[in-house]
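Entry type: protein chain
Record version: 2
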Amino acid sequence: MTSHPSSHRAAGGVSLIGVPTDVGAGSLGARMGPEALRVAGIAQAIAQFGLDVKDCGNLSGPANPGQPAVNGFRHLPEVVQWNQTLHDAMYAELSAGRLPIMLGGDHCLGIGSISAVARHCRDTGKKLRVLWFDAHADFNTATLTPSGNIHGMPVACLCGHGPQELIEIGGHVPAIKPKDIRQIGIRSVDEGEKRLVHDMGIEVFDMRYIDEMGMRHAMELALALIDSNTHLHVSLDVDFLDPTIAPGVGTTVRGGPTYREAQLCMEMIADTGRLASLDVVELNPALDERNRTAELAVDLIESLFGKSTLMRKA
């Protein structure tokens, strides 16, 4: 295996931030995700590229109260608290010139993470591109949601559709514009959500598109127009992957990308040299088999940081 260190922007070092909560999810267990990723060797996998890896440990926040939804939201006060704490931690690492990796936790944490990245981009005058790898569009609102679980709402909240205390976390509403985000691997969207995603004009490369056009074409479009002034953020929900290779998630959806398709996504991102922050979310070790989903996630992250089979010609 060989790597090309020029393929990422982590010269200032990489910071791991564990966020052990499943407060936004329907099933318990994602709170154990950060530890599973550590056990699978995430720090060592990144350090092999000669990068300084700092494990910031786990953030702390309220326990999961296990309550039903109130006005369309489950656990809103707890979700707000976790996301505010995460926003502050991510923003501090970005401000220090480091590449933060958020180890989730469920995907409601994308609100705190990406609002911090968006704030950093406003500070530095950078363009933002978010690649959202997920089986779900995560664009539910209180009126649309079947469950009230906020891990189904982060993209809506980031685009300004959500409770005031969540949409304001980064200090700017909306935190991101719909044109900043590309969704890849989508194959489960609730009825009301379909209309909203369409109306907002979010660019979605769903599984049918990937089946018809190929993953390479989808990724070329998702990465189009990225330049040296672009901050590239990857939000990787492990349910993006087909459950036959990644069983350790609470919301499996059949028909996801294969191992090779997922690797290609990561390799093409590495080739841009623009990766500047990362979320790894929805890993649920309670549903996994011998930590294989965490090990697969770490394998993909290695590719994201530039692992390749052969020396590539520049």
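Comment: The first helix runs from residue 33 to 39.
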